[in-house]
């Protein structure tokens, strides 16, 4: 009887030990699977992060590249200054309509390849900088473009704005990139003036508003871009 009981206890202990061994084996497998899954997740996150960073870098580089002037302004030559103080461009000024941004060799530009849409120039006064490619198209139609920087006196800016508003085929806008406080531009011609009362303002308007330099005389200065 005692022998049978001892045998039963031994069998029970053996089964319990076997169950413990099986449980430990399952725990080891579970740990291995958990670690493996964690490694896969971490690797995936790292790879995904690298791809995202590279993608953003490529996008930033592409955006930066797209923002740079890539088109041809179709300009060659240089300015010569006459005895009247007006600078005249001697050389080529392209007239092709282009879609890519171009960099002009003068500021403001007095011609060259430009956008197919002109800035409205029927005495239009813009209080913010405008796209030169549209303004050049206005010059092609015979407009005079008055530009100024923050160094120009407010009284002069106001007086010039009043003059522009009364003069068809003119437009006005700020341009902080130009060299002088106030400049007047027409197709192929440009000059600086000291202020609104400078007699050269009236002379420039009289000569170049729809002047002989106009590549497309009579072309519209309305129904274009009004910002």
From TrEMBL:
The keyword Transmembrane applies. It holds the Pfam family DUF3105. Residues 58-67 have a biased composition (Low complexity). Keywords: Membrane, Transmembrane, Transmembrane helix. The chain crosses the membrane at residues 32-53. Residues 58-79 are annotated as: Disordered. This is Membrane protein. It comes from Streptomyces lincolnensis. The lineage of its organism: Bacteria, Bacillati, Actinomycetota, Actinomycetes, Kitasatosporales.
